Amino acid sequence: MYGKAFAPEYQGALQELSVNTAYEDVLSAAREREHRAEAEGTPLELAQARLAVAEACRRLGRLQEADAAWRSSYRAAKSVSAQGAMAWALWSGGTLARQRGKLNVAVRWLTAGRDLAEQAGDMLAYGYTFAGIAETLRIRGDHEEARVLHEHVLAEARKRGESRHIVWALEGLAQIDRFAGDLDSAWSRFEEAARTAEESGDERGHAWALRGLADVSSLRGDHDEALLLLSRAEQTCRQMDLSSALAYNRKMRGNVLFRASWYGEAARTYRDAREKFRVIKEPRGEALAQLGLLKSLHRLGRPRPETERELIALRDSLESRELRHTRQMVENTIAEL
């Protein structure tokens, strides 16, 4: 069994905020609390407020503000030796680094956060940082190592009844299964994640699970069902100001349209996704959208040398960003051409 979803990253005076609170509202409340904590000279409350600022800004795609906020949160927590709050700040910083494509840095900060959380006895922060490491390794392409960590997170989450961790772990394992070609297992895990998220009131997790179900539906040939699932998820993304999730939703819509051979519409959708990723400076998503766009243009009859030239440029641009798995996808496309 599991309880209702909540957001432990909203702490102190902000703990009344819901996991489903729109991020513009989170940012407004966090800024107000930040100013009050500065005036009152309370470092721990300042660290907590700036953590919420960092998370809201990250989700909204305001990455420079997010970077400044998590670092400031860490400094405030360190000034009073609050190891738990320091761990939460490092979790936020590591998650931001992953979003920016800096995966080695992400693992380093998340690992440091995990160790601090363990020392502080903050099991929630420990779980969040541990899950963050698993997610980063999966994105980097280290699937077997990520699977072991995701399985550990899932077992601990089930034991503690933490619905958000259950959903995250199931979605991570489903992604690994999907890349391994085990669509039945991927569908089962995404379906359980969607059900758990819906029953626990986690709209954000539900939107991501619907995106996964849409991917598997499309791979099975049911493109119309996939588009309906994506439309449901997109509504949640817009309501909650989920900039990154919305961009990935649009990229997946491009994938579905491409698989259905609707290449013109796929190209338009990939362009939209690419621009959304550029706005929030998310290199992995931008690269995937660009890859989809180039494949669509090729199917629409674009001269092959032009497509090859842009694919090679895309591959080379990924070399310094640690996105090995994404780079391999581009190389596979070049080989197919």
TrEMBL record:
Gene3D superfamilies: Tetratricopeptide repeat domain (1.25.40.10). Transmembrane segments: none annotated. InterPro entries: TPR-like_helical_dom_sf. It holds the Pfam family TPR_12. This is Tetratricopeptide repeat protein. The lineage of its organism: Bacteria, Bacillati, Actinomycetota, Actinomycetes, Pseudonocardiales.
